[in-house]
Amino acid sequence: MGGGSGDLSPTSIPASPSSSSSEPLPRGRGFADYVPVSDGDSEGCCICDDPEVAALLDGSQFQHRSLREAKDLIRRYKPGCWIEGVGDTKGGDYSVPDTTTLLLVGPRGAGKSALVNRITRVFDKDDDPFAPERAQVSYNSKSNGTSFVREYKIPRNSNGICICDTRSLSRNPEKDFKILQRWMTKGISHGEMVTWDTDDGTKIKNLKAMGRQYSFLPCKTRKVNFVIFVIDGLSVLKSIGSDNKGYMDMLHETFMNPFLSFGDDKPAVVVTHGDRLSFQQRSQVQNELAETLAIPPQQIFDIPGSDDYETDMVVLDMLRYCIQHAEQNFSMKLNNLVEMHGRETLAEMMARLMGLDAVMDVTIVFLCAVALLLRVSDNLL
Ligand SMILES: Nc1nc2c(ncn2[C@@H]2O[C@H](COP(=O)(O)OP(=O)(O)O)[C@@H](O)[C@H]2O)c(=O)[nH]1
Ligand SMILES: [Mg+2]
User: Fold this and answer.
1) Which ligand 1 atom lies nearest to the CA of residue 304?
2) Was domain 91-330 assigned CATH 3.90.180.10?
3) Rounded to the nearest whole angstrom, what is the distance from the C-alpha of residue 114 to the centroid of ligand 1?
4) Measuring CA to CA, which of 104, 184, 208, 275 is 20 to 30 A from 95?
5) What residue spans define the domains of the chain?
6) Which residues cross the membrane (predicted)?
7) Ligand 2 centroid, distance to 151 Cα (angstroms)
8) Is-contact 117 137, C-beta < 8 A?
């Protein structure tokens, strides 16, 4: 519980090295708000010969430290360690998966696969700066895009978090609903071929040939624990400026699909292509999405393709948000449910028996009265 964030404390947002080119968007409290607390001794210290202390007082060092701490928080993550028990429950009462699974959903070209690479890059910078990209990103509109479900562990070779990249939504939300419902209720597995009703015979034949290596070895089916809804900010901006509201309507209809929500928890929204928009345009897109999807701006994460401190922080902030919400929605263990419901059922049965008791008492009194009356009437006759 608490995710080990106890050693972090909120202070002001450190200045971004890229703030001149892309100012941070107005956001809620996130990782970027967390920097190590100074012990107070440094205040008033004007001359400092100790290079370590000097480095700490230097703003860029603060940035590195806060980024490192945010990364460490995700690296240390194990499913179940951020559960906040509710009612009388505690961590052990929940059915915790071996890996917390996040599902990427979004229209074609929104940047789902690019997002997998962007997230991986945040950790690769420390682990293997020359590691190749993992997900196949579409180069242009001729590309097939992603047609098979692929899971990616975050960071590479770890076990805590798994992100599932999927085929893009079609332009027909009703067709998407069927497959989304299946993933959200029955689970999703690596290598699964995703077809739409609109795919013709040739397309399906080609997909089968492309996915031949997955055919005979079905991978583990994972329960989806939270959803990341990816949206291309550029398309939103174009839609705002035009009379055709088809794109926004499609986003709204899909986002509101009840199967994508966990109780009241709607998916986290990631906005891509921010590097191709000005600061004002990014704010405009964020406001429009908050309005259309009826979610607070804090649930919208503006993650452009750019590779800078600010972007890394938002990536980590988004991961933390998703994991926290996934953990809040882990289901309870069956034996706990049986135990809890068993207790309730027992109490209910007892109450009924007590009720029966009263009925029995009344019946006995009634029968005694009848017997008495019969005897009295016998004597009289
Ligand atoms: N400039 C820019 N291009 C992006 C960004 N995200 C994705 N792209 C590009 O958009 C195209 C579609 O991305 P892709 O990840 O394949 O979309 P998907 O269909 O949702 O998986 C690719 O050419 C990406 O390089 C971004 O944030 N900024
Ligand atoms: Mg893709």
Assistant:
1) 27
2) no
3) 5
4) 104
5) 2-39+52-76, 91-330
6) 353-374
7) 12
8) yes
